[in-house]
Amino acid sequence: xxxxxxxxxxxxxxxxxxxxxxxxxxxxxxxxxxxxxxxxxxxxxxxxxxxxxxxxxxxxxxxxxxxxxxxxxxxxxxxxxxxxxxxxxxxxxxxxxxxxxxxxxxxxxxxxxxxxxxxxxxxxxxxxxxxxxxxxxxxxxxxxxxxxxxxxxxxxxxxxxxxxxxxxxxxxxxxxxxxxxxxxxxxxxxxxxxxxxxxxxxxxxxxxxxxxxxxxxxxxxxxxxxxxxxxxxxxxxxxxxxxxxxxxxxxxxxxxxxxxxxxxxxxxxxxxxxxxxxxxxxxxxxxxxxxxxxxxxxxxxxxxxxxxxxxxxxxxxxxxxxxxxxxxxxxxxxxxxxxxxxxxxxxxxxxxxxxxxxxxxxxxxxxxxxxxxxxxxxxxxxxxxxxxxxxxxxxxxxxxxxxxxxxxxxxxxxxxxxxxxxxxxxxxxxxxxxxxxxxxxxxxxxxxxxxxxxxxxx
Length: 458
What we know:
The protein is of the alpha+beta class. The protein folds into two domains: 95-199 and 431-447, Phosphorylase Kinase, domain 1; 202-413, Transferase(Phosphotransferase), domain 1 (Orthogonal Bundle). 39% of the residues lie in helices and 13% in strands. Strand 4 (116-125) and strand 5 (128-135) form a beta hairpin. Mean pLDDT is 80; it is low at 3-19, 22-83 and 268-280.
């Protein structure tokens, strides 16, 4: 990454939104009882249930709690840095099981490699539990997630498989990658999966909603890293599809990593997108073509999401906090303008065409009156990223070469994925037994490759 770095004082970073270290949907579509009990007919609609019940509400309420979170984060950081002890009570002793250790976390038994020293629980939901730990061999701090009930539902198991495959496949400094796994002791009967990644201080959502001052240099550096990550993903034929501030992790030096790939897909999906369909991404960051079913979507959906995040960092509030799908479209057209009649007529869905034609005619808003502290170059790039028509939207390549990012652009930062990700397993009819074998094989393969790499370094 470029030598132009923007340092952020560690003491003002909020508490990490730790559930985002891995796919939030990998084992459950929602934290809320109402969403968990509702019946859904597809993988996408289950994920939408999660997004509506947790992500949107957390976006709206996080600003009121961010200061308290920041204060508690500082206290926890100070105590952990000084002693690095765990939050286990005297009655919760760590048991040794050969080269493994076992200990309870919120009523759930964790069984991990003995090289990890448990520090504290940092996240919990229906999907599982995330803890922080210290690797005593490398002295690195890591996040360890135990995914519980992996095979309770086939869609959950499939998402877990997808997430593991993607985490294994990626190798980029702006993408959260897999550091370690725990091989299940019982190949035919395991129900939980442990995944290890590096531990980062916070996420972008909490930074936006905190009192942390953000200069244009901060904004530039954040956007630059997001675009570098997207360039890498798209070069591997992968669309993230769920890019939002909560899925962007940060450390104290503002180094950024995109996470949560449980909903990622191939860049040319063959799936229907009817008007107002239940879709996977959090509504506020969803592109118009997804909402309206504007033909097959492309990697430009991620550019729209990145543009929404860009504008949110500038304004310190979400650009399009729609209450529902219709409200979402109205909010979008108020800022980016209503598309032309010619563009509306290209919509494949009749309901979509009818709805868009009936919307009031609105021109693009004056961005300088909305983002009054932003430079002309920043506003120009934002405008190009938030084009209603995906064919007019700026590409990731052109965005990276935009004058706004010129001060920190370094061609050496642009990395391409070595090979396209293989999504062929998505088309297979996978049973629970087959999924268990595939997940086990992926875990063992990663562990073996890691051991080979370790021996090569000796």
